Amino acid sequence: MARPRFLPDNFSLMIIGMVVLASFAPIHGHAASIFGQLTNFAIALLFFLHGAKLSRQAVMDGLTHWRLHLCIFTATFVMFPILGLLLKPVIEPLLGHELYLGILYLALLPSTVQSSIAFTSIAKGNVPAALCSASASNIFGMFITPFLVSLFIGQSLSHHDTGSSNAVLNIVSLLLVPFVLGQICRSKLFPLIKQHGAVVKCVDQGSILMVVYAAFSEAVIEGIWHQVSIETLAGLFVVCGVLLAIVMLLIHFSSRALGFNQKDQIAILFCGSKKTLASGVPMAKIIFAGQPIGLILLPLMLFHQIQLIVCGILASRFAQRDESLDDK
Predict the structure, then answer these.
(1) What counts of helices (H) and strands (E) characterise the chain?
(2) How far is Cα 285 from Cα 283, in angstroms, rounded to an integer?
(3) Of the ranges 123-132, 218-227, 318-327, which is most confident?
């Protein structure tokens, strides 16, 4: 039986499933503490495998294209945050303070890795440059995002110092150190990872699902569904869609005005307009430790689904173009 076109992908359905499960059967007490430790282990394993998968040669191939990387970094860490701040007078009255913080938090996150590269490849763009830029965005984002959060959101959090060295150390130990160890072990591990891709995918998706379940369990206990109405969810969907549309239009016209060829424009569009769920959820768990992060993560999860759908449509259209005209 053919899969209905209106259904999202399996991973999106599983994320929705975790939200539903947490809504009816939230984990709490000692079980939540144990589950949190297991989640931390899964996150560390995830970034270890990411490090082992990343090709050093591909990084070197794309590393020299500094103008493209600068453009993507500007879109990710300058354009997005500025838009998040400029839209505050509209978003905060519409959605409330907590959901606005979620919008601002997603604006401060690095780009995705896998999906940015995948969509660039489908669209026949500059894949090596996309790989290098998206990976660098995630690595540097481990430090840039906490700094930006402490700068733009820290004053809005009443119980936790997001700029503390403890948060940075937790990010380094949980995300960066496993990533570096994976790079060191890459020569021995990559053949196994390539052979057992399903296991890697399971860790990749499973760690995110665990964090989503834990976060929403806490949010449900805190009464999230008494705070978010259907109208608010609809408004959040519109805000996320409009934010993505503005960013994509700005990237499209600016990359064309700067003289990038079509393949580079595609890489800039897909890397510069996307925000990572894989790194964003674990970082939120660390940065906002002690805070009710369910509402903060809700905009990111919704934005993630929207960006996958929109980028999938655009990638398919780009793939149908005549590549011989790209450099003319």
Answers:
(1) 18, 0
(2) 5
(3) 123-132
- Higher pLDDT among residues 155 and 65, named by residue: 65
- CA Rg, the chain, in Å? 19
Range of the domain at 114: 11-317
CA-CA distances (angstroms) from residue 26 to 152, 312, 320?
31, 33, 46
In a domain, 244, yes or no: yes
Q: Answer yes or no: is pLDDT of 158 > 50.
A: no
Under a CB-based contact definition with an 8 Å cutoff, are residues 154 and 162 in contact?
yes
Give how far Cα 187 sits from Cα of 50, 57, 198, 295, 323, Å: 13, 12, 19, 41, 35
Q: What is the CATH number of the domain that holds 240?
A: 1.20.1530.20
Place of tokens 């004053």: 155
pLDDT of residue 84: 94
pTM here is 0.71
Q: How many domains does the chain have?
A: 1
**266 domain-assigned:** yes
With beta carbons less than 8 A apart as the criterion, state whether 298 and 102 touch: yes
